[in-house]
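Supplementary Methods, section 5.1.

A reviewer requested that the exact input to the structure prediction be made available. We therefore reproduce it here, unchanged from the version used in the analyses.
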Amino acid sequence: MTKQAEKAGTAPVSYEDLEQVITERYDTLSGQLQRIAHFVIDHPNELALETITTLAQRAEVQPSSIVRFAQALGFDGFSTMQQVFRTRLIESSPSYRERIKTLRTQRGADVTGLSAILSDFAEQGIASLEVLRSETSSEALTQAVDLLSRAEEIYLVAQRRSFPVVFYLSYALARLERRCHLVDGVGGLLREQIGLATPDDAIVAVSFRSYAPDVIASVAEMRAKGVPVVAITDSPLSPLAGLAEVCFEVKDNDSRAFRSLVAPMCLAQSLVVGLGHHLDARASGRGKRKRRGCPRPI
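The structure derived from this sequence is encoded token-by-token as follows.
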């Protein structure tokens, strides 16, 4: 083992351990190694299958930088790190994204024009939903619902393309008769709006790369004051992840100009419906669901 590896400690054995080590050491890495960290987290299948030269080209770094990254995590070199990704790929069934990619290749140019655009977005949405279903733990859902059920007021914060998710949550939570605040930042008052939250409340923050600076900064300030946070983001390396008591990582194809909101919206709906069941069960004391001031579907 190299001196760099010895300094870093024992190399992770599983992909889950590797992801945790990357998350824990991310802030100590150089800017270039942080770029590689994002790349390996976002493209685990490519890490398992491609050569170091191809990966370096994709990540826009030198192959030697990928070797240094592996050594910083405790590996002897790139090949030993790659084995972790290969084991993950072998143990997991083909993802919906890979199956859709295969179907698209087989289909070729059969679908063109506007129909192709619709088909492409629909396929990506299906793929993101399958990833969401397979990678979202019931424990995280339960923890988030319990946290939101105990909050006196819920603050909902997001900007730019993430904003529709919290706008829906504002509507749906109001239908559940939950006190909530949509932190929209109108008039440049985002921090003043969210600054009213207390540790008895909760924040739901949504942000995807490139992360909205005002959202990150305001959530960090409130977390320092003890306000619990539920985050919906896209990576364990997201600045929101380290601030959240419960973090949902909703992955998507970052090479597209338009991020799909299919999976985040599905997650938001699941949290609302789960919260409704939880509140009804608590109110009835019997665990049986009954309507709670919502005569029509949310």
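The two ends are 57 Å apart (CA to CA). These observations are discussed further in the main text.
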